Amino acid sequence: NMAETDPKSVQDLTNVVQTLLQQMQDKFQTITRIDDLxxxxxxxxxxxxxxxxxxxxxxxxxxxxx
Length: 66
Hints:
This protein has three helices and no strands.
């Protein structure tokens, strides 16, 4: 009968829920870290001039000008 729940089962349920929430939080933090890493990599590529290779028209103009 659910009206008179065993304190042990309530404690078990609480533990299960806490564990699930912790796992979800860990996964979310991992996803957030991956997003941060992707942003950092994009910034590094920009700094290294990788995007300039894709956008060559400006480089070509500079080359013709000199």
